[in-house]
Amino acid sequence: MKALRSTSKSTWQFGTADFKCAVEAVFAKPKIMDYARIQARSLFFMSEGEAPELKRQSLEIYTDFCQRGVDVTLREFTAAEGADGRCQVNNLRLAHWLIFDRLGRVFGNEPGDVRLRC
Fold first, then answer.
1. CA 37 to chain centre
2. Beta-carbon neighbour count of residue 55 at 10 Å?
3. Which of 11, 61, 91, 93 could disulfide-link 83, Cβ–Cβ 3.0 to 4.6 Å?
4. Looking at 1-118, which runs of residues are DSSP E strands?
5. CA 79, CA 42: separation in Å to the nearest integer?
6. Which candidate, 50, 39, 10, 5, places its Cα nearest to that of 26?
7. What is the dihedral of CA 81, 86, 91, 93, to 10 degrees?
8. pLDDT reported for residue 18
9. How far is residue 57's CA from residue 60's CA, in Å, rounded to a whole number?
10. Calpha distance 95→118 (Å, rounded)
11. 0.70 exceeded by the pTM?
């Protein structure tokens, strides 16, 4: 039964029969991401504990967006906030609060507005 759940999860998440097939598909069709074509407002999260290369890439894209006038916010999480882990897994509450705060500002949410419930 566990294998069946695993296969179902792989199918749902990756559109493949299993994780191995998903990895093979990624390497079979590498996609080049041209971030210079992105015009949408963006919110980037980064932790002070991230690998140097991930930080470099985040800062490079953030700088490019700023130079092109794209509405972008880069938030670096810290150990003092308890959110220095990869993807802020050690403080998801803070990460979620910042996401919903940003959405509230983007969509013009007023305090007590029921359109966006946080």
1. 18
2. 15
3. 91
4. 42-47, 72-77
5. 24
6. 10
7. 120
8. 76
9. 5
10. 13
11. no
> pLDDT confidence of 113, banded at 50, 70, 90?
low
Task: Give the tens place of pLDDT for each residue, 10-63.
Answer: 566 667 777 788 788 878 877 778 999 999 999 999 998 888 999 999 999 999
Q: Please check whether residue 50 is in contact with residue 57, taking contact to mean a CB–CB distance below 8 angstroms.
A: no
CB contact at 8 A, 46 and 57 = no
- Give the span between the Cα atoms of 55 and 6, in whole angstroms: 32
Q: What mean pLDDT comes out for the span 84-92?
A: 80
End-to-end CA distance of the chain: 37
For CA atoms 65, 89, 91, 56, give the dihedral sign: negative
